[in-house]
Specification:
480 residues; alpha/beta; five-stranded antiparallel beta sheet; 15 helices; globular
Length: 480
């Protein structure tokens, strides 16, 4: 473990009452727990009272890659203005334009084409078109509600083809991901692959004896060919793989075309998309205070109702859903700007200023945490969390966080410890980065705020770094 300063030295500058809550034996115990983690790991830890008075600190002002701890900052920015965002929210709609069927996205994260869909269903829009006409020319996916920024700066290329790095679009369907189910059969033959057909599948998997499987899926960016290689055991259970969608507007139009055909509507043309290129006017620094230009909204034939955004906050924080988080940043962005990442960053900066978070203590290139450019300090996270706890909506926001040993991304952590059911925190996981920030209740009943960040661990040791942090937090909770 690499500490930039000793624990005792870092504790001294803070107010005496807070520092006295972390006696030297406890500091030594926490240091020992972290030293059992992977060698070379860089840790940052800050624990404070609910009003922000520090209790224990390790490198609290060093900058770390926060991974999905970024989602705390995104959802807090949205929650601070949630009623206005809810009023402005619009659902996906359709219209007919000179014989074309236009599917227009307006930022909805939960549109579905699943056969069992009951709410926010693409089938409802297909029904509306089929009730009006029996013939259309082109089917057009229009995502110009936001500028065309499908990935934030710093997204790793290898993540783009995974479901976690799918393209961001104002027209989103089925979480912008596709599934393929691999079912083994006779030894030596390729297994059966069941998929939607949007991607062509080059199946080179071989069935072998046993239950083990080792499958690699590869797809080039903006390509629609998925190559499957490797092996699957004859006795293995069917395996489902998930692939990202690079052009969500095209995929949504493709699915709408199929639904129209199934309803007896003749489609004589092709699938097209309508994007809005990113322009200098999407940067508030370039606009210098001028309002953002937005394309006019055309009247719709039918439009789906919007779902409560608070429900989406739970999906974002509990499940650590990347796509929904990035769409939430763009929703916040469009409230006062163009829907661009830059306008989202400006909105986030305004809220961080209100919360008293030092501008030098954070930087974000996206809303989800998938970007390797993102940075926060433990103090930035704790300052924000302390401020949230004092807001009228603070308790509702805290309820969106995973609960240790019970649900979300913390369902399998802290089980059987003093923190099971008593730690409420956002996780984070990226290459050589682990993060956990939130609130916990100590053995004596005190509620504390914390941020624990780990970076630079050796390859393959991320889980050990998380375990070391978990042990340190348990030790704190038991001692206080």
């Amino acid at each position: 473990m690499r500490l930039l300063l000793s624990l005792a030295a870092l504790a001294l500058p803070f107010v005496g009452a807070a520092a006295q809550n972390a006696p030297p034996p406890l500091l030594a115990s926490i240091e020992q727990q972290l030293e059992q983690g992977p060698k070379g790991t860089r840790y940052g830890l800050l624990v404070a009272t609910l009003d922000g008075a520090p209790i224990l600190a390790i490198a609290p002002d060093e900058r770390f890659i926060p991974a999905s701890n970024t989602k705390m900052f995104t959802t807090a920015t949205a929650y601070a203005d949630l009623p206005a965002l809810d009023r402005a929210a619009q659902g996906t709609g359709v219209r007919l334009d000179q014989g074309d069927a236009i599917l227009e996205g307006r930022g909805d994260a939960r549109l579905s084409s699943a056969p069992d869909c009951t709410v926010d269903c693409l089938a409802t829009l297909a029904d509306a078109i089929a009730a009006r006409t029996r013939r259309v020319r082109d089917v057009v996916g229009d995502d110009s509600w936001y500028p065309d920024e499908r990935w934030g700066p710093g997204m790793s290329w290898n993540n783009i083809q995974s479901r976690y790095g799918t393209g961001i679009s104002a027209l989103t369907l089925d979480d912008n991901q596709l599934a393929a189910t691999i079912t083994p059969g006779a030894i030596g033959a390729p297994p059966a692959v069941q998929a939607t057909g949007y991607y062509a599948i080059d199946n080179r998997i071989i069935i072998i004896p046993g239950k083990e499987q080792a499958i690699v899926a590869d797809r080039a960016p903006n390509g629609r060919l998925v190559r499957l290689t490797g092996t699957i055991g004859q006795d293995a259970a069917p395996d489902t793989l998930y692939f990202s969608v690079d052009d969500p507007a095209h995929y949504a139009a493709w699915r709408l075309r199929d639904l129209l055909v199934a309803r007896g509507v003749t489609v004589t043309g092709t699938i097209r998309t309508r994007h809005r290129p990113l322009s200098p006017g999407d940067d508030p620094a370039i606009r210098r205070g001028a309002p953002a230009a937005r394309p006019p909204a055309a009247p719709l034939l039918a439009q789906l109702p919007t779902l409560p955004l608070a429900d989406d906050m739970r999906i974002i924080n509990k499940q650590s859903q990347n796509l929904h988080a990035d769409l939430m940043l763009r929703r916040v962005s469009r409230a006062q700007g163009s829907g661009s990442i830059a306008d989202g960053q400006a909105a986030l900066d305004r809220l961080m200023g209100q919360a008293g978070v030092d501008k030098a203590s954070y930087s974000f290139a996206d809303g989800s945490g998938m970007s390797s450019y993102n940075r926060i300090t433990p103090r930035a996270a704790v300052t924000l969390l302390s401020w949230i706890a004092r807001q009228p909506w603070g308790a509702a926001w805290r309820d969106t966080l995973p609960i240790a040993g019970q649900d979300g991304t913390l369902r399998n952590r802290f089980k059987g410890t003093v923190l099971e059911g008593k730690l409420f925190a956002k996780t984070g996981s990226l290459n050589a980065s682990r993060a956990l920030s939130g609130y916990f209740i100590t053995k004596s009943g005190r509620t504390l705020v914390f941020s624990a960040l780990a970076n630079d661990m050796p390859d393959g040791t991320d889980a050990q770094a998380s375990a070391a942090v978990d042990r340190a937090l348990v030790a704190l909770a038991e001692a206080m």
